[in-house]
Every structure is written in structure tokens, then in C-alpha cells.
Amino acid sequence: MKGPSFDHPEAIAAAMGVLDRHLAALNSGDAVALAQTLHFPHYRLAGGRMKIWQRSETYLQDFYARAGNEWHRSAWDFRNPISSSSDKVHLDVQFSRYRADGSLLGRYRSIWVVSSIDQRWAAQLRSSFAA
User: What is the pLDDT of residues 76-107, one digit of tens each?
Assistant: First the structure.
């Protein structure tokens, strides 16, 4: 059995850039910039259910509903590549959600798949333990 491949540093750098832009857009409430970090349809497996966004229009509002009224910002705790190819990167990530006063709402592990489709890097799907 062949192990994970990390011989695609350009792909890993592109995927990390997507994650950077994703959280910056989320934290600033920029729905347009946020949508640019995702491929649509976009898939999220959490709580035993697959959510599919066909288009970007409701993505940010859906996040606000999941995160709750106390959410103020999120931050990556770690982002570790699991495996990569020239056009796809699997990442083991953990992020934290915070209130406006800086207190922790929660920490969540996820697997993100970031891919290049039509020469555009964006997150295609993820499996999350977050609500």
C-alpha cells in the first residue's frame, strides 16, 4: 500500500492559500470572497447528514445559523496535509470558534478536500465534527 504523497508543494501551497482566504472571508462576512474559496456544488458531511450547496447564495447565512449568535470569529488551530496530487489536497484541520470577548465557543476537527477545477483552487468538500 502506497502512503500519502507530499511531493506536490505547489498544490499544498495553493490549498493552504484557499484555507487562509476562506477564514479571512468568513471572519469579515464577505459572502463573495467566501464563495470564491468553494467549488459548487459544495459538500459538507456533519452530524450524519450530507449538506449540498448547489450555489453560493445561502452559504454564509447557513454558516451563521450553524455557528450561532455568539460566534464572532474563527481561527485555524492546525492544518496538516494528509495527501496530495497535482490537482487535489486532503487536509486534516482543526479550527476554533470564538465569541467577541475572545472566549472559546468550541474546537472542531475536519477533513477538507481542496481541488483545482478549471484551473481554480477551492474547497470541494469536507467532513466536519462541527455543528
Answer: 999 999 999 999 999 999 999 999 999 999 99
Strand partners, 43: 52, 125
Cα atoms found within 13 Å of the Cα of residue 52, Cβ hemisphere only:
2
Omega of the bond leading into 41 within 30 degrees of 0 (cis): yes
Answer yes or no: are the C-beta atoms of 97 and 109 closer than 8 Å: no
The answer to whether residues 34 and 26 touch, using CB atoms and an 8 Å cutoff, is yes
CA distance 131 to 119: 31
- In the sheet with 38-46, reading across from the earlier edge strand, the strands are 49-53, 38-46, 120-128, 104-117, 88-98, 73-84
